[in-house]
Amino acid sequence: MTTLVERDLSQPMRQLIRVRDHLLASDVSVAQGGHDAGPSPHDLYDAALGACISLTLLWYAKRHAIPVGPVQVRIERDAAAERDGVYRLDAVVYVSGAPGAELSSEQRTALLAAAGNCPVHRLMTHVRTEIATSLGEGDAPL
């Protein structure tokens, strides 16, 4: 799969991100020279974890016929030690039963365990990612 990121020339720092048929934007804060016209790359990284946790929980609930209603994942970032090699994310999962259905403590425990096994969490913590960066020849293709 290919993700394409290109500069939005209408703003100083904004990037347009194309993933399949989806268009997203990323930017940096005004203090960093952008217009804050989208989440920063760090925000997108954190959001990927939150979305994966929620989707994994829902997938598990569906597979095990657990009547889940609202789900919210709150990701809190502590990047104070990032330059020292430590990037901390705290994920808090809020989940309720579907209307008229109360989740048991066993169901809630199982949902939390499933959420903790989301693929992005594993990528962030158990997989070595290898990145090769090169400079393309000529102008960027359209």
Structural features, described:
The chain has 142 residues and is of the alpha+beta class. The chain has 2 domains: 1-38; 40-134, GMP Synthetase, Chain A, domain 3 (2-Layer Sandwich), CATH 3.30.300.20. The chain is built from 3 helices and 5 strands. It has helices at 41-63, 105-115, 119-126, and strands at residues 3-7, 15-19, 22-26, 68-78, 88-97. The strands form 2 sheets. Strands 1-2-3 form a 3-stranded antiparallel β-sheet, with no helix packed on it. It has a two-stranded antiparallel sheet with strand order 4-5. A hairpin with a 7-residue loop joins strand 1 and strand 2 (15-19). Helix 1 crosses helix 2 (105-115).
Instruction: Give me the secondary-structure category.
Output: alpha+beta
CATH topology of the largest domain: GMP Synthetase, Chain A, domain 3
Beta content comes to: 25-35%
Q: What characterizes the major β-sheet?
A: 3 strands, antiparallel
Q: Sum up the overall morphology in one term.
A: elongated
What's the CATH class label of the largest domain? Alpha Beta
Q: What gap, in angstroms, lies between the N and C termini? A: 18 Å
Helix count from the secondary structure assignment? 3
CATH architecture of the largest domain: 2-Layer Sandwich
**How many β-strand runs?**
5
Average predicted confidence as pLDDT = 95
Order of helices and strands: EEEHEEHH
Which superfamily, in CATH terms, is the homologous superfamily of the largest domain? Answer: K homology (KH) domain
Task: Give the low-pLDDT segments.
Answer: none
- Spatial strand arrangement across the major sheet: 1-2-3
